[in-house]
Amino acid sequence: MVRIRRSNLIFALIAFSIVFWFLLYWNFSSIYAHQKGLRLKSKFNSDEFQAREQNVVNEIEIYSELYLENLAEVKTADDQRQYDAGYHSHSFNQMLSDKLSYTRPLPDYRNKRCKDQHYSSSLPQTSVIICFYNEALSTLLRTMHSVLARSNVELIHEIILVDDFSDFDYLKSDLEKYIKSYSKVKLFHTPDRFGLIRARMFGAKQATGSVLLFLDSHCEVNIGWLEPLLDVVNNDPHTVAVPIIDMINPDKFFYEASDLVRGGFNWGMHYQWDPLPSNLVKDLFQKPEPYQTPTMAGGLFAIDREYFYHLGEYDSGMEVWGGENLEMSFRIWMCGGRLVIAPCSRVGHIFRKRRPYGSPSQDSFTKNNLRVVHVWLDDYKRYYFHINPRAEDMEFGNITGRLQLRKNLNCKSFHWYLENIYPEQLSKLPDLNHSYHGQQNGPNDPIASKVIVRARGLLKHASSGLCLQSEKTVYDKRALIQLAVCKPGDKNQLWFETEQKDLRLANLLCLDVNADEGPYARLMKCKGSNQQTWIWSKMGYKSQLVNYGTSECLFAENVEPGALLTTKSCSDSPFMLFSLVM
């Protein structure tokens, strides 16, 4: 009898092992199209996930760069179709995203001292608000599941998903059925396309948690991300907290650590990342405490709910996206609040090379910036208009209510903000005696029958002293752009800047950045797109070239001849400085 029981036990264990490994293999290898329903499940339940989180360093074979590269490999014609369709719809590798767990192990890039931090046992509960429009299902659910898996459940009051009138069926009733298994997740649909700004306002109205925590819909929160943000707000409800935003590669989904930086802006009203002073970096290494930032990127932040409304929430006169992050940053600082980055909180974000969908209004970005300029910049708005002269004649709507809000809140001047919060920007004021070649915010005008050239010359890279040219000939479409020894008079290095704010090599093909074509700058047929719009932004005696489609700066990988040009988040890197030499 004992032998029979023992043999039965062995048989049961073998059967269980076979079923377990079959299910594990099935989950790793399955790919489901969104339209076939929400069948993707998290690979690890919460208990297993937490155990794996503790040993993530030892799991090099899972989600290592080599593993992800192999998983991303396009092997068949069907793979290629899925890959192309994903990039077309979402501007990232949806095919790979669909293969990954919703709670995949992530490397812990926090300062080691963050793990020894202790927080109050009475931190406030938060409503996490995630707005989306036509988002890929796997990235949306990975955002949601990462919050559920990596957060103290007692601190999550609710997760509010806001569908901003998406076109895809899988983001409607199918998603509603899926989230029924998660009591803290709620799904709301806007009655029309609101755009990100108004969709967030819509989501905030549904929220009842003490703290509002906004996330983009293609994020992965990391270990211990929540407490540092809530601790900041708990200690001072008038302080807004932002995490360190790590980078998720859009093609291979590598999770890459970001340096400690802070937010800034240039006088074209573009957000930029600024490096921290070396002494502050040393201090933060020894004691990773929240530090001040002049502006925030705007996609991810925590704010006391009552303070959000006291401060005037978002400007409802703004459209879709753009400018709202600077507007709120200025308003927080000038009206008695503080804005800080919590270095012990890290959240990964997919940084796409382009936005996969256009704005309902072509001029929304410029209109939004004009509302910021006229409400908050005081006399400093002349510097914006010096760079963007044509913006002076554009409509921006009624700002009476926002001006009254500023008065009611007894806000300080923009000069106070520059002197006390962002003094570095005072040294970067545009020279009002210098012409900026018709630079301006906003998308290209339709291509005119006759192109008006504003300037021509060598496009020179400041750090290397080298010039930009095609890696092939001036006639080769899709040719990459590289650095080369300058040759004045050579048509292969002669660039033309036009009224449409594009840059044409030999007055033929345009400088273009497009995620569908790859990560590098290249020559493409001129078509007046945002990806071919380049805005000069002065930095000292040189200038950055900001791409309107990506809001990133042109960047040389190194200072050697043959180095390729790409775009990166704008900073004060000398590798981002250029000039047009007549």
TrEMBL record:
Transmembrane segments: 9-28
Major localization listed first in the record, in broad terms: Golgi
Protein name: Polypeptide N-acetylgalactosaminyltransferase
Protein location: Golgi apparatus membrane
Enzyme nomenclature, EC number: 2.4.1.-
Keyword Chloroplast: no
Cofactor: Mn(2+)
An example molecular function term from Gene Ontology annotations: Notch binding
Membrane-topology annotation of the record: Single-pass type II membrane protein
Keywords linked to the UniProt accession: Disulfide bond, Glycoprotein, Glycosyltransferase, Golgi apparatus, Lectin, Manganese, Membrane, Signal-anchor, Transferase, Transmembrane, Transmembrane helix
Family annotation (Pfam families): Glycos_transf_2 (PF00535), Ricin_B_lectin (PF00652)
Organism: Biomphalaria pfeifferi (Bloodfluke planorb)
Example of a GO biological process term: regulation of Notch signaling pathway
Pathway field: Protein modification; protein glycosylation
Family (UniProt): Belongs to the glycosyltransferase 2 family. GalNAc-T subfamily.
GO CC term, one of those recorded: Golgi membrane
Domain of life according to the entry: Eukaryota
Entry keyword annotation includes Cell cycle: no
Gene3D superfamilies given in the database record: 2.80.10.50, Spore Coat Polysaccharide Biosynthesis Protein SpsA, Chain A
Residue stretches in coiled coil: none
Record domain Ricin B lectin: where: 456-581
